[in-house]
Amino acid sequence: MTSPIRTERHDKVLVIISDNPPVNALGQAVRAGLTDGIAQALSDDSVEAVVIRCDGRTFFAGADITEFGKAPKGPSLPDALDKLEASDKPVVAAIHGTALGGGCEVALACHYRVAVPSAKMGLPEVKLGLIPGAAGTQRLPRLVGAEAALPLVAIGNPISAKKAKEIGLLDAIVGEDSLAADAIAFAKSKIGQPVPRTSEGTANQDGVKNPDIFDEFRAKNGRKMRGFDAPNAAIEAVKAAGELSYAEGVKKERELFGKLMTGTQSKAMRHYFFAERAANKIDDIPADTPLIDMKKVGVIGAGTMGGGIAMNFLSAGIPVTILEMKQEALDRGTGVMRKNYENTAKRGRMTAEQVEQAMGLLTPTLEYDDLADCDLVIEAVYESMDVKKDVFGKLDEVVKDGAILASNTSYLNIDEIAATTKRPGYVLGLHFFSPANVMKLLEVVRGEKTRDDVLATAMKLSKKIGKVAAVSGVCPGFIGNRMLSQRQAQANQLILEGAKYWDVDDVLLDFGFPMGPFQMGDLAGIDIGWHRDPSKVTTIREALCAVGRFGQKADKGFYDYDEARQRTPSDEVKQIIADFAAKEGNEQRDISKDEIRERLLYPMVNEGAKILDEGMAQRASDIDVVWINGYGWPLYTGGPMFWADTIGLHTVVAGLEKHGLPVSDYLRKKAEAGESFN
Ligand code: 3H9
């Protein structure tokens, strides 16, 4: 097999080039090639400096994740990088694209780093449940200081070249189109000078002088890190970089890395990494299916949902025409969109110019005819089949042939909606989650007649607007809400049988969800969909509405809320539930948290199995993607189906049986065969 690494001579400079598509991952052959390249430079007296760069779309994007969990093959990345850094001839990293993880560690082991303005650098290992394992936690703080290193290592978001230069991670920013030549010139300028080795840097002493920075960082980012093991290990490693010698620090990093690598969290998060990428692929549609050009998008409805949907496209530079029925609603909707953008700008995540650019792409209208030349129209109107049918009928008449018509319905039958048009092949569901400009998930609902190019275009578009998409077949509630309704039914039943409603919420919080169903009800408003007749009480929610307990907005719902929005279980609600249960003939008993957890989560897995069996999801990992991105299922458990695999499907079946709950044939068969979903 030919090596992915080649070398070129430019006078006294040896250029080591990696060409390992798609992302120049640092697999065994790349590591071996890098080591050989450095050896070649050192053994040749006519070479006086070295440049390392990559062909293709990016500098090394990290270790090859597909090698994790397999028997390691030398040279290891830490060894390769130690050899590189030991060179007494200057080595320059020439960076474009994304220098991530092990790729960033390659750059750190080089004596100098130059990059193009569009490059990004980062250590995202923490997002795979890991910390950098090739001395990144020890070299980075020695170069840029512990305080600047902490967010990079413990949160894992990449930074721009500009920011990298500011903190000292880059030595120079070079021309966008002249990286190779500029890096060689930079290397030549360093010939004959003593080489600066990052492992010998002293910037890490900032954390020794002010050890409070570690606790402050923990306090500031506590919510983001809740439940995850890797961020704490990352903080520990960065702290160690100031307290220990380099050799001891590296040893500490290896210990922490090894522990994380063999733990369940990293396994789950690596599963998710590949799951997210797999979800964007549709098994029976060829990758080279021609796509429909997307120059302009229409959105019907300028409420919270429609406005949020529109913002996704505006932010991606795609013009949007937004339609409302009344001028007042249109003005209100576009006003909210502008305000959202301005708030983002206030937080420093957008410039004022970008706000104007995005809003400049928006055309508000009251006329259906203005949607005629859109390539895609998404309706986000009231959730009623009759209303949707009416909207699709009108759209079918005015919007040009070959344009896609999409519904944002979270529940209704897409095939029935499609049948009201003369172009059912061009109809599909695009189910956004609220707030639609923030939430990552997009459920793409494939109708019976949806054309291949329509679906392929939707998947491509979802990536362009920064969404994580998963395909669902047509069934009530699709993948996400269909499984949610199982959990909700159990939550309601549990409190009738005597479970404390705050225990139900706490079980889900402890599991890693951001909140439980009753807290969620209070936040969203318990009166959503309430008929406003206090004399007709058929559910606990209606009983709460009847006494004005509408949720957080009324300072009372399931919980009482104080000024700081802290929740306290309410005696009034306890009584309402007890009375309601008695009326329904439910005898109340103490219910353990274990029972609550099993009854909330196992029926979801069972429903997931049915969804798979019916072919409503392409693969179990798509279900994981839906639940992690749309419903706050904790990433570090890998999603409901991966989690079920981890605890064993026989455990799920036994639990369902113990609680007298239904077990689908598919789940039972898999459990009996000792199989897993993923
Ligand atoms: C690490 O470095 C540990 C070290 O500290 C310690 C070592 C001792 N490996 O995302 P895309 C595949 S941990 C293997 O769709 P984009 C990916 O699966 C690593 N494969 O492209 C996909 O395959 P397919 C730290 C990888 O342009 C294809 O490449 N680094 C890897 O949207 C295209 O990927 C990271 O965590 C990999 N490292 O985004 C960075 N990376 O076509 C992970 C990608 O079959 N990577 N693939 O579906 C990324 O964040 C994005 O891929 C990147 C490009 C931003 C680079």
UniProtKB/TrEMBL annotation:
InterPro entries, sorted: 3-OHacyl-CoA_DH_NAD-bd (IPR006176), 3HC_DH_C (IPR006108), 6-PGluconate_DH-like_C_sf (IPR008927), ClpP/crotonase-like_dom_sf (IPR029045), Enoyl-CoA_hyd/isom_CS (IPR018376), Enoyl-CoA_hydra/iso (IPR001753), NAD(P)-bd_dom_sf (IPR036291)
Residue span, 3-hydroxyacyl-CoA dehydrogenase NAD binding domain: 296-471
GO biological process per UniProt: fatty acid beta-oxidation
Catalyzed chemical reaction(s): a (3S)-3-hydroxyacyl-CoA + NAD(+) = a 3-oxoacyl-CoA + NADH + H(+)
Superkingdom as given in the UniProt entry: Bacteria
Keywords in alphabetical order: Fatty acid metabolism, Isomerase, Lipid degradation, Lipid metabolism, Lyase, Multifunctional enzyme, NAD, Oxidoreductase, Peroxisome
One protein family per Pfam: ECH_1
Keyword 4Fe-4S attributed: no
Signal peptide span: none
SUPFAM superfamilies reported in the protein's UniProt record: 6-phosphogluconate dehydrogenase C-terminal domain-like, ClpP/crotonase, NAD(P)-binding Rossmann-fold domains
Pathway it works in: Lipid metabolism; fatty acid beta-oxidation
Compartment(s) where it occurs, according to its Swiss-Prot or TrEMBL record: Peroxisome
Domain 3-hydroxyacyl-CoA dehydrogenase C-terminal: 477-561, 598-657
Molecular function GO terms recorded: (3S)-3-hydroxyacyl-CoA dehydrogenase (NAD+) activity; enoyl-CoA hydratase activity; isomerase activity; NAD+ binding
PROSITE patterns, per database record: ENOYL_COA_HYDRATASE
Annotated family: In the N-terminal section; belongs to the enoyl-CoA hydratase/isomerase family. Belongs to the enoyl-CoA hydratase/isomerase family.
Quaternary structure (record): Monomer.
Name the UniProt record assigns to this protein: 3-hydroxyacyl-CoA dehydrogenase
Annotated source species: Alteriqipengyuania halimionae
